[in-house]
């Protein structure tokens, strides 16, 4: 299957925005537990979920946005831009984490909402107030559902080294990243969750591998050397694995046959350090999406425009969705509603996501404006694959 090259075309790949928008909506739905729409999100049809897709796309976007300077040997400017972006994400995380703590605390003390507080580990703030308060800006204290931005901050900072190495040797970069992933599984090395006796929910030493693969894919776009080119048998195998995973998870068929007999590195199913099965599934899914033209046409269609807009303004949408989701958790505990009403409220929340994206796209939501480089990445929409063909440096 040949990949068409379209010289001189340099526009956004709408598929990347569409998939990111779908991932954001999936995260929002999943972050409001016990609502009927949860049954139809991606985690019910495969071994991975929106988190893996989100981090993979983050790596692609970072590479598209910042690798140009590294390829030219001019490190200072892209490194400065990456660190500024990491600072923005850090500020956003601290802000939405603080808002979430206020919402949960209000629900607890004013309305007696205890289950949400216990479920997300708000109780740490009650029992160890000062250290927990200090832990928020240190990224050590993370309540449930507010774990991914700290991971992304760390990965962004790490991307300076990943890009520096990848622009010299993609295989060397991936080899180092693979080694770190293996060590995360074998040794349990992790960032500390402080105050607490455990590590981060998303272990950066494990999750950096899927991010690094995304960086390599994005670099393949920039240089015209795809990380994994079209291969018929591999494409068929990817489809078979994706369909097998969908059936297995949807019908709750238990442990995957033979998995327990494999070495621990492959048998582990823990999401924290990024289990091999989850990694293999998201990569197979990515290969299917990349090399199936019909999927690309659907993702780039006019009907997907609202989702594309949300994906293009990912930070603003994610921040708003995170706060709205925790608010709905508290509200639903105070005022229990039927499943139909829950669905209606979730749909209104999705509409709110679109309005936030619209405002951000028009530059009305500083500091969430998505004029940042990785969310303005330019790739060719005419390519059957986002890993085939060079692109121009996106505007910051």
From TrEMBL:
Keywords assigned: Membrane, Transmembrane, Transmembrane helix
InterPro entries xrefs: UCP028704_OpgC
Chain segments annotated as transmembrane: 53-75, 87-111, 145-165, 172-192, 198-221, 233-251, 275-294, 315-335, 341-360
Pfam families hit by this protein: OpgC_C
Region of interest: Disordered: 376-396
Lineage: superkingdom: Bacteria
PANTHER family in alphabetical order: BLL4819 PROTEIN (PTHR38592)
Protein name: OpgC protein
């Amino acid at each position: 299957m040949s990949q068409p090259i379209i010289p001189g075309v340099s526009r956004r790949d709408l598929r990347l925005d569409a998939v990111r928008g779908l991932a954001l909506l999936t995260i929002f739905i999943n972050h409001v537990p016990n609502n009927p729409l949860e049954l139809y999100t991606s985690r019910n049809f495969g071994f991975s979920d929106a988190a893996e897709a989100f981090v993979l796309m983050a790596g692609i976007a970072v590479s598209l946005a910042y690798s140009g300077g590294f390829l030219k040997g001019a490190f200072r400017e892209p490194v400065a831009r990456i660190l500024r972006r990491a600072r923005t994400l850090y500020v956003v995380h601290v802000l939405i984490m603080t808002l979430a703590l206020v919402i949960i605390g209000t629900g607890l003390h004013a309305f007696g909402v205890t289950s949400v507080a216990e479920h997300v580990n708000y109780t740490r703030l009650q029992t160890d107030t000062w250290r927990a308060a200090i832990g928020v800006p240190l990224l050590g204290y993370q309540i449930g559902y507010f774990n991914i931005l700290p991971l992304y901050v760390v990965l962004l900072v790490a991307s300076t080294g990943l890009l520096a190495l990848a622009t010299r040797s993609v295989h060397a970069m991936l080899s180092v990243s693979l080694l770190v992933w293996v060590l995360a599984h074998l040794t349990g090395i992790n960032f500390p969750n402080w105050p607490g006796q455990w590590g981060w929910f998303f272990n950066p030493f494990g999750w950096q591998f899927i991010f690094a693969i995304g960086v390599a894919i994005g670099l393949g776009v920039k240089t015209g050397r795809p990380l994994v080119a079209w291969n018929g048998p591999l494409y068929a195998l990817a489809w078979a694995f994706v369909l097998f995973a969908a059936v297995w998870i949807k019908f709750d068929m238990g442990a995957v046959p033979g998995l327990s007999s494999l070495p621990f590195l492959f048998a582990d199913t823990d999401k924290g350090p990024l289990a091999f099965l989850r990694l293999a599934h998201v990569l197979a899914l990515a290969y299917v999406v990349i090399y199936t033209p019909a999927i690309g046409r659907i993702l780039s269609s006019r009907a997907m425009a609202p989702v594309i807009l949300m994906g293009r303004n990912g930070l603003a949408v994610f921040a708003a969705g995170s706060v709205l989701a925790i608010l709905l958790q508290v509200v639903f505990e105070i005022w229990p509603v039927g499943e139909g009403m829950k669905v209606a409220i979730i749909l209104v929340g999705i509409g709110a996501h679109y309005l936030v994206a619209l405002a951000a796209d028009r530059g009305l939501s500083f500091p969430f404006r998505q004029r940042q480089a990785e969310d303005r990445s330019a790739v060719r929409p005419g390519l059957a694959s986002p890993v085939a063909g060079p692109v121009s440096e996106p505007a910051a």
